[in-house]
Amino acid sequence: MAPGEALPGPESASDFSCQRTMLCVSDVPSPPPPSMAKPDPCSPLLMQPDPDPPVDAARSRLMSSIAQQGSKPEMRVRRALHAAGLRFRLHRRGLPGTPDIVFPSRRAVVFVHGCFWHRHPGCSAASTPKTRYAFWQEKFDANVARDRRVSAELRAEGWAVHVVWECETRNEAFLPALQAFLSLHLPQRRRRGLPGHWLAVTPARRR
């Protein structure tokens, strides 16, 4: 130390207070960025209703396994027609809607509709799943609209259209209406030789 140089004295009280304040401020953790902040459970965005749950894989496989052609209701109708000696074509793709049963010479077609998918009016089988209600309702509405459009196109081309519902094939409920429909389109010579009830349900053959 050079002669005559003043010794460093103690820091002033104001300088000590400033350093202490800076130390305390640096020790306080900074708030997390907005992306890391915890969401507020009362936020309006979080209180919105949950969207429809994802499609259940098991239900999807079950729905896709339902036969579109050659179903049990259709087979019951076909057996009754065969037993009556009637011959017909199946699933003619050249016609609107690909009818299940076609009588080309009589210009008549028969659809065998499932009550669930085609929404049989007043039938208990035409229920709507509780999950994904909007999805199913939209699908059912599209099916009904397509059925109406197909029937209108067939009638415009000169075809007679008849619908047999799945629930009607569990007994003989479908026979009177189907018999009356076909009688109108049978040749005159064939009508004269028919008995009063010429359609009947025949049991399936056991293999």
Secondary structure: elements and pairs:
Blueprint lengths: L12 H15 L29 H8 L7 H12 L5 E2 L10 E3 L4 E6 L1 H4 L14 H24 L3 E6 L9 H9 L4 H5 L15
Parallel strand pairs: 3-4
Antiparallel strand pairs: 1-2, 2-3
General description of the model:
By secondary structure, the protein is an alpha+beta fold. It has a domain at 69-192: VSR Endonuclease (Endonuclease, Chain A, 3-Layer(aba) Sandwich), CATH 3.40.960.10. Helix content is 37%, strand content 8%. The chain contains seven helices and four strands, in the order αααβββααβαα. The chain has helices spanning 13-27, 57-64, 72-83, 115-118, 133-156, 175-183, 188-192, and strands at residues 89-90, 101-103, 108-113, 160-165. It has a four-stranded mixed beta sheet with strand order 1-2-3-4, sandwiched between helices. Strand 2 and strand 3 form a beta hairpin. The longest helix has 24 residues, at 133-156. The chain is elongated and about 90 Å long. Mean pLDDT is 76; it is low at 45-50 and 59-67.
Features:
4-stranded mixed beta sheet; Endonuclease, Chain A; 207 residues; 8% strand; alpha+beta; single chain; 4 strands
